[in-house]
Amino acid sequence: MSEWVLPTTEEIMKIRIITAVLLAVGVSIARAAPDGPIQPIQPVKEVNLAKADLGKQLFLDGRLSRSGVLSCATCHNLAQAGVDNLQYSVGDRWKLDAINTPTVYNSSLNFVQFWDGRAPDLKAQAGGPIANPVEMGGFTHVIVTNFLKTIPGYVTEFNAVYGTKDITFDEVTGAIAEFEKTLKTPNGRFDRWLRGDPNAIDARELAGYRLFKAIGCSACHNGEGVGGKSFEKLGVFAPYKTSNPEEGRYEVTKKDDDRMRFKVPMLRNVALTYPYFHDGAARTLHDAVETMGRIQLGQQLAPEENDEIVAFLETLTGEFPSIALPQLPAGSDATPLSQPFAGTPEANHFQ
Ligand code: HEC
Ligand code: HEC
Questions:
Q1: Catalytic: 135?
Q2: Closest ligand 1 atom to the C-alpha of 64?
Q3: Candidates 1.10.760.10, 3.30.360.10, 2.60.370.10, 3.40.50.2000; CATH matching 189-314
Q4: Closest residue (by CA) to atom 12 of ligand 1?
Q5: Torsion angle, CA of 326/274/224/60, rounded to 10 degrees?
Q6: Separation of 44 CA from ligand 2 center, angstroms?
Q7: How big is the CA angle at 265 (ends 34 and 127), to the nearest 5 degrees?
Q8: Catalytic pick from 3, 135, 246, 308?
Q9: Are strands 231-233 and 261-263 parallel, antiparallel or unpaired?
Q10: Given the CA of residue 231, which atom of ligand 2 is nearest to it?
Q11: Is the Cβ atom of 311 under 6 angstroms away from ligand 2?
Q12: Predicted local distance difference test score (pLDDT) of residue 344
């Protein structure tokens, strides 16, 4: 057991000074920070650039898929706000995904990944689509790493980044996650307004923001991402009608209470990431806002109110990072060609 020693007068003075300094700093932070429910997106920090650069190449490399055609960027097009604007993405062998594709921009701000939160972080997430038969065709970790080892450029880069001779799947997903950390969109008009530029948004957009707070949208959509911080029931006041069988968090916990509880999506860049909801059923922001008001808050919004909220949501579009297009390392003679039509009649096209 440690003994409790009374602090000396000198130590008490030190503690008082430190407390005073902390209070002063705290007060100035509080003053600079907006007092509302939404905070500006912080710039990207603490990124390992070499690792992120490797991750960018892997993110763009269709050769990680069974067909050789589908990269992460096929569904999460970086030039298209990180989505494909489809209700359901098209994956391996033209199969449809089971749920709408969320954006990868700002995904590092999510408290967990996927609509049902089954991946705790981006690194854990990145293994999912590669192994998913519907998405990238279900390559095993071993197939992927063995494949990468036949590409001399990748071998050199993995060695430089991780300092080992081998390439592991853990390193693959780690690099992709590092790249995804760089995909932030700060300095949108709303963030500039939060930081004190009164002209960054206009009166109608401001009215929309006030309404968003007043009726309670911000109870679920808040923080830096304007969402991405909790699971919430979809259909608080009235059930959500859909033919999509996904039940959200229930798929993970199997608790009845978690049926139709989904991760609250972030609303950053939401004007660009249509269609909306996990079933992609809402084509427009007006539709999505109408549904949210009705089933989450029990409010039938007047058309003018809906317009105002949509105008506010449009101010959440940020500045996208400019991403230099890399040239992916070429394979060696030992690198197998991908077989997009393996096992189908088309495989014999020229035979
Ligand atoms: C065929 C389309 C497709 C491909 C290819 C694909 N994804 Fe996705 N991605 C999706 C879908 C659909 C979801 C939502 C799945 C769910 O929540 O169950 C998703 C979810 C995510 C999420 C979680 C975002 C959030 O808000 O929860 C991240 C991050 C992500 N993908 C990154 C990647 C990476 C990295 C790759 C490549 C290794 C990749 N995706 C390949 C369709 C795709
Ligand atoms: C009780 C929590 C809650 C409240 C309140 C709430 N939302 Fe949502 N919101 C969610 C959840 C959960 C989803 C995901 C729905 C799904 O799974 O399809 C969502 C989805 C959305 C989407 C679609 C995003 C996308 O990328 O698909 C928009 C837009 C949206 N909400 C706006 C609003 C607005 C505007 C309000 C106020 C009128 C509001 N929300 C109130 C929880 C809430």
A1: yes
A2: 38
A3: 1.10.760.10
A4: 101
A5: -20
A6: 26
A7: 120
A8: 135
A9: antiparallel
A10: 12
A11: no
A12: 78
What global pTM score does this model have?
0.91
Residue of minimum CA distance from atom 13 in ligand 2: 264
Percent of the chain with pLDDT over 70: 90
* Ligand 2 pocket, residue 266 CB under 6 Å: no
Cβ 37 under 6 angstroms from ligand 2: no
- State the closest ligand 1 atom to the C-alpha of 92, by its place in the atom list counted from 1: 1
Domain 49-184 falls under CATH 1.10.760.10:
yes
The answer for 85, left when phi > 0, alpha when psi is -120 to 50, beta otherwise, is left
Share of the chain above pLDDT 90, in %: 81
Q: Where are the domains of the chain?
A: 49-184, 189-314
pLDDT band at 26 (very low <50, low <70, confident <90, very high): very low
Helix, strand, coil share (%) of the chain residues, nearest 5: 45, 5, 50
- Minimum mean pLDDT among 47-56, 104-113, 214-223, 337-346: which range? 337-346
